[in-house]
């Protein structure tokens, strides 16, 4: 009799095996929650909360805090958070090792560290621009318009990383621009925004999108060229950003700081803004490490919807129009269209 060979295993079974492996996560009894879903849930909540809380902090009091100082403090908080997360990542080595490792990579290996000066400066500018934007735009309009960073990131990826975009991605980018244009389209209805200059807010968001796109691509280029921990890179980024942010405090607001102090008009809401900003930098790093771009898009889309609803119900500074509904829908659809990759040739979807 001819030897008996087991039938070949279909290629789709390996795909099922890959899908069955959720990656690292948290296990509690029979329940298991992958880190990627934890990171995405936190990203969705943080993205929504920071926009709303920052908007409240800029409009709820006539005595405003100095936003450049808040940017510096958020970077300081992010630095401490990065060290703690590096320690948690390798708890057997201890906190002392984490501190020594950060010192070695930042001080001893300073030439490599200096590369982060460019994205740090751009992120510092971006964070200051976001305070300006949310002082002049309602939360929902800001959140939708800020999705133009997808366009700027794509353009810089093509120019700096040599990436190529197919017709589907370019089509998604044109849909994105159309959606944002509809959201910004003037209507004859009386807008309920009570203060601020919408044009100033729009310009601030557009500049922030350009800064975010270039800094993100530059940072990605650095990460791909090194095997260093993302938390060490995050600490270095925060260190440069805090240092450069102090220049912003000195050149723009030093007289005001001398009159009223660095922490003047800080309230509980302001400290929440600082914590959420710092937390956001850490969550994005976790999403880069554990999740993918498609799942991140789901989180951003849900965040746009939540921000619109919260702005309408809680802040009462936003009027829902047909242009906004259609524009926001196009923005959400374009992000999905841009992020979803077509199936590879020869790979079954079964």
Brief digest:
The protein has about 350 residues and is mainly α. It has 14 helices and 2 strands; from the N terminus they run H-E-E-H-H-H-H-H-H-H-H-H-H-H-H-H.
How would you describe the overall organization of this protein?
- The structure is a single chain.
- By secondary structure, the chain is mostly helical.
- The chain contains 14 helices and 2 strands.
- The protein has a two-stranded antiparallel sheet with strand order 1-2.
- A hairpin with a 2-residue loop joins strand 1 and strand 2 (31-34).
- The longest helix is centred in the last third of the chain and has 31 residues, at 230-260.
- It is globular and about 55 Å long.
- 40% of the residues are buried.
Which descriptor suits the 3D outline? globular
Q: Spatial order of the strands in the main sheet?
A: 1-2
Order of helices and strands: HEEHHHHHHHHHHHHH
Largest sheet: 2 strands, antiparallel
**Beta fraction:** under 5%
* Rg measurement, Å: 22 Å
Mean pLDDT: 80
Helical content stands at over 70%
